[in-house]
Amino acid sequence: MSATELAVEGLTLTAGAHHLVRDVSLTARPGEVIGLVGPNGSGKSSLLRAVYRVLRPDTGCVRVNGADAWSLPVRRLARTLAAVVQESGAGIDLTVREVVAMGRTPHKRLLDGDTAEDARLIGAALEAVDAAGLAGRSFDRLSGGERQRVLIARALAQQPSLLVLDEPTNHLDIRHQLDVLGILRRLPATVLVALHDLNLAAYYCDRLYVLRAGEVIASGTPAEVLTPYLLAEVYGVTAEVAVHPRTGAPQVTFLPGEPTAAIRPVAPPPHRPAQEGSGGTSPLPEEPGGSSR
Ligand SMILES: Nc1ncnc2c1ncn2[C@@H]1O[C@H](COP(=O)(O)OP(=O)(O)OP(=O)(O)O)[C@@H](O)[C@H]1O
After folding, report:
1. Which domains does the chain have, with CATH numbers?
2. Ligand 1 pocket check for 199: Cβ under 6 Å
3. For the region Disordered, what residue ranges are annotated (predicted)?
């Protein structure tokens, strides 16, 4: 299956009088891994919910290969898009294998049993997340990290060409974090993933979008986006950014203490919608001394 193009255009989401997301645009080209980063409450999950069709846009739209995701038949969208979300999975009285087998549902007709190919895909998905040994266990009795890996396996079994994940490394030990992100990196799919760990985002994502208070305030490659300046402005932290000598990816080291005036912008940055194409958009003033690379 070839990867899918995702375009979020001028998306605004509200809950009552509260803006969850305001005029957000982003693109993910086929096969790209796009990271969503930003502080708690900045709108990452809300944006993802609109993409996987749980939270209806007030204005703007979500396009999947050019088609409005909210107008597509649910089943057709489910053959394209899989989601791994934070709140899913509680209270599922099924075995692990049965949960992963649910990933095959969009590809089958009502009452169809598992084919040999389904069984192969379910087994491969379990193997991929190191959960083959859990197949017969009750899903409800798994640890948080085991459950998370099984939900990722279910999404893999769905064979999506667009995969949307909300903090997929939550609960995972470092070995399984690296494994899961490595799998996402190698999938023949487009990936949109919310991550809190900026070093993992820097290493595994092609491009990042930075959200703050429901708006995109910067986007671009990790090296373009992850500067001490931006980290001071968005998270209010002091950080140093170096290029890792082996991976070539930006590596952020956080330091105690408030950011100093030298790396704090004087005025809040104006909002400028993120743009498609190469090169990042950052409304933040130039960092003294130029790029961190
Ligand atoms: N249904 C709702 N009604 C009112 N406010 C909401 C609702 N859903 C989310 N919010 C608020 O909208 C903001 C964005 O929430 P969201 O969950 O999208 O942020 P997030 O970036 O995913 O946060 P986190 O990093 O903590 O997971 C938060 O302030 C949240 O409290």
Report:
1. 6-88+159-263 (3.40.50.300)
2. no
3. 255-293
